[in-house]
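User:
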Amino acid sequence: LEAVTVDTGAAADTLVVNGTSGNDTVSITGTNATMNGQSFSLASEESIVANLGDGDDAATVTGAVGITIAVNGGGPTASDSLTFTGSGAAVTVDLGAGTITETGLGVVSDTGIEQVNANAGAAGLTVTGTAQNDTLVVTPSLTANTAQILANGVSPVVQANTTGTLTVTGGGGAGDVLVYNGTAVNDTIGVAATNI
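Assistant: Predicted structure:
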């Protein structure tokens, strides 16, 4: 099919897009969903759910006003990725809630995702831990304005990309620990009470 339009009309509607048992590639915005090359133009949906199933799956999502998006990676448990592309406002990745939120836009949630690529552009990017005592490990990349964040040694790994301010904060735990790794080159690291 060259062109498919899905218009769910009034009321609180949910569009569910199911993947395959193979390696799925899905792209979702507020007005379009493309699964393995098949494109669907969207209208009037309040919620979009992508079930990617088994395989090494890759999802790319852009948030939208008034629309929640859920990406379920399925199995296996080491190879699914979600790339979130911001549109100019501040972005928050909440590891405890399993959500990515851009200010003013609908929440993007994820389950079964092993790597989250959060692209905030020039806006601020915040990565928040869980309600437990977290050990948050931040490893900057040799590529400018990028860093990897891992909480408690479990997925998802967050690949943070922003030319704005990157904030890493614990969740509700009272004993959170921040570990900041240097790079393979000569580093100069300044440490203050609230920033590195």
